Amino acid sequence: MPTKKDLLQSPIRHIEMPQHDVVGLVDAMKAMAFSARDLNRAAEIYVRMLEDRECGIILCLAGSLISAGLKQVFVDMVRNNMVDAIVSTGANIVDQDFFEALGFRHYVAPEEYKSGTLDGELRELMIDRIYDTFIDEEELRACDDTVKLIADGLEPRPYSSREFIRAMGAWLEDHRKNDNSIVYQAWRHDVPVFVPAFSDCSAGFGLVAHQHERGEEARVTIDSVKDFYELTQLKMHNPTTGIFMIGGGVPKNFTQDIVVCAEVLGYEAPMHKYAVQVTVADVRDGALSSSTLKEASSWGKVDTTFEQMVYSEATIAVPLIAGYAFHKGAAAARSARRWAQALGRVPLATT
Fold first, then answer.
1. Which range marks the domain in which residue 98 is found?
2. Is 349 a domain residue?
3. Is 159 within the bounds of a domain?
4. CA-to-CA distance for 281 and 286, rounded, in angstroms?
5. 212 exposure class (CB count in 10 Å sphere: 0-12, 13-18, 19+)
6. Nearest alpha carbon to residue 348 among 165, 206, 85
7. Which of 132, 157, 223, 256 is 20 to 30 A from residue 271's alpha carbon, by CA?
8. Cα(259)–Cα(56) distance, integer angstroms
9. Are the C-beta atoms of 280 and 311 separated by less than 8 Å?
10. Domain CATH number, residue 11
C-alpha cells in the first residue's frame, strides 16, 4: 500500500485569469449553439453588471470549487473589484480557502482512486477524497483547531458568519499567512463574505469545540438570522444588484431571497437586475439547485431581461465567463463599494 507521502505529491494548480486572454474564444461562441452560445451571453451579462455603475454584485459559491482549482479566479475577482459580496458554502471558504491560506494544499488524485474502490485505503492513511482530489485529514483538523483559536479570542456573543469570517481574515493578517486567499483579500478589500450554513464545515468542528470547552460560560455563537438581515441590508443600501451564481443550494436561495426580505421590511426593493447561474443540476430531477432564473422571477426575485442559465461544470465555464470580463476591462471604472464597512467591524482576535 502506498504511503500518505506517496499519494500527496501533485498539488492542484489554480488557474490564473491574467495568463489566459479568452475574449476571442468567448466572442466566437456567440455564433455557435447550445451551451456555447449560452456561455457567451452569460459573459456579456456579467460585463453589463460590471459596467453598470449602480450595480452591486453578489458572487454565490456552491460545490467543491476551491479544491478544484478555481481559488485564484475568485481571489482575482476580489482584488480587481469584480465582486462586492460573497455568499458561499462553508466548505469553499473554510475547509478549502482558509485551509490553503494556512499553508496546506489540495492534491491531484491518481486516476485509479476516482472510482471509490480504494477509499478504505485512504481512510487508513487519513486522506479525504473529493472526487479526483485529495486533502490531508490531519491538516484539516489543524484548520478546525485554528477556527477554535479564533473563536476563543473573540468577545463571547452572537456573530453573523460575515463577522466571524472577517475575524478570520484579520487573523491571517496578524499571523502573516498566505495572502492569496479569498478570506484574506475579502478582509483587505471590505468585501463581506456570508456562509449561511456556517457549521456545515470545519468551522462547525472548531466552534463546537469552543462551546464544549466553555460549557455554560459565555461563548461565541453564530446567528444565521443576522446573516440574512445583514445581506438584506445591502440590498436596501444598493437597490440595483446582479448575482453571479456558481452551483445552487443555500447560497443561491439565500441571495435571491433578500429581495423578498427587503419588501417584508417595508422597502421597495427591485428584483435582481442581472443574474447568471452556472450549474449541472437538471430541472427534470426536481432539485432546487436547478430551479431556473425565470422561475425565480415568479417569486419576484430575478428580472428576466438580463438572466442566463449556463448548464456546464464550473471548472470549465467560470474561467471563461470571469476571464472574459477581466480581459475586457469591464471593472476598470468601477468604484469599490466596501460593503463590509457599512455593516460595521468585528473586534479582532487577540490570539
1. 4-147+169-198+223-342
2. no
3. no
4. 9
5. exposed
6. 165
7. 223
8. 13
9. yes
10. 3.40.910.10
pLDDT along the chain (351 residues), means of 10: 94 97 98 97 98 97 96 98 97 97 97 94 96 96 96 97 96 87 97 94 93 95 94 92 94 93 91 95 64 59 78 97 98 93 55 40
**Which pLDDT belongs to residue 298?**
60
Number of folded domains that form the chain:
1
Per DSSP, 109 falls in state P
**Can you spell out the DSSP letters for 298-349?**
HTTSEEEEEEEEEES-HHHHHHHHHHHHHHTTTTTTPPP--HHHHT--PPPP
> Is 226 in the active site?
no
Distances (CA, A) of 237 to 10, 248, 278, 339, 345: 45, 25, 27, 9, 17
Contacts for 141 with CB less than 8 Å, ≥ 6 apart: 205
Q: What is the Cα–Cα distance from 342 to 147, expressed in whole angstroms?
A: 25
Cell triple for residue 124? Answer: 487508513
Q: Has residue 153 been placed in a domain?
A: no
Note the pLDDT of residue 305: 73
- Choice among 71, 177, 301, 328 that is catalytic: 301
Let me know if residue 156 belongs to a domain: no
**What pLDDT is stored for residue 9 in this prediction?**
95
Residue 97 DSSP symbol: I
